[in-house]
UniProtKB/TrEMBL annotation:
Lineage: Bacteria, Pseudomonadati, Myxococcota, Polyangia, Polyangiales
InterPro entries to which the protein is assigned, alphabetical: DNA-bd_dom_put_sf (IPR009061), HTH_17 (IPR041657), SinI_DNA-bd (IPR010093)
Domain Helix-turn-helix: start-end pairs: 5-48
Recorded superkingdom: Bacteria
Molecular function, one GO term: DNA binding
Protein name: Helix-turn-helix domain-containing protein
């Protein structure tokens, strides 16, 4: 799984870093914890962007 930081995911998706981190902690975004930080699935972020832009791809874990 290719990953990006919560800060990078937040910038791409237009949300705050805290929102992305809380969603990772709740298990709503596929991510792994590395030390004290979260790494978000880059593929999931790309699918979420498609959905936000009106694409037909369903965003799932």
């Amino acid at each position: 799984m290719r990953t990006i930081s919560t800060t990078q995911a937040a910038a791409k998706l237009g949300y705050s870093d805290d929102t992305i981190r809380r969603q990772c902690e709740a298990g709503r975004i596929p991510a792994v914890r590395v030390g004290r930080t979260w790494k978000v699935s880059a593929e999931w972020v790309e699918r979420a962007l498609l959905k936000l832009r009106g694409g037909s791809t369903t965003v799932t874990r």
